[in-house]
Specification:
Four Helix Bundle (Hemerythrin (Met), subunit A)
């Protein structure tokens, strides 16, 4: 896989867009996601809480599956195909870098990822759109900080 070098500025800008657009996605989708769908996600998320990845690739798979569950369902129900396509493109770009970086990822972050996603889900299940949006924003800001660490450790940033 070929990954184009990314500057710290590029990463910050990518996440800035993701933060704004994904919170819009959650706000648009929150009241449209069927309760049964949220319950199924919770059941799957609860099973993830018991998972303790033992390798970088297992951790990455864990993160991707969790993201697909929660971010995927909000994208599915946001009701805006163009928004969905743009956000999916951003997520794919970030994930391509994470695949490249997997040997530098901190497996211990799996619990943090789970807790952040569980908070978003909790607020969605409670019908609290603003808190779900706020929890997603915090999750993405934390993801940015974790990703910066991975990039610095891999010396992947270009100037």
């Amino acid at each position: 896989m070929f990954v184009t070098p990314m500057s710290l500025k590029d990463l910050n800008e990518l996440f800035e867009l993701c933060i704004h657009l994904e919170t819009l996605v959650v706000e648009k989708a929150a009241t449209l996601i069927p309760e049964q769908e949220l319950l199924q996600i919770k059941e799957r998320m609860d099973s993830f809480s018991k998972v303790k990845p033992v390798s970088d690739s297992e951790f990455l798979q864990y993160v991707f599956e969790m993201n697909e569950l929660l971010h995927g369902v909000t994208l599915q129900y946001c009701g805006n195909d163009m928004l969905q396509n743009v956000v999916c493109g951003f997520i794919e770009r970030i994930q391509s870098y994470l695949v490249f970086l997997q040997k530098n990822m901190n497996i211990d972050h799996s619990q943090l990822e789970w807790e952040e996603n569980a908070q978003i889900l909790h607020h969605l299940m409670q019908g609290n759109v603003q808190e779900a949006s706020r929890a997603l924003r915090l999750h993405l800001q934390n993801s940015l900080e974790r990703t910066k660490i991975y990039f610095h450790e891999a010396f992947l940033f270009c100037d």
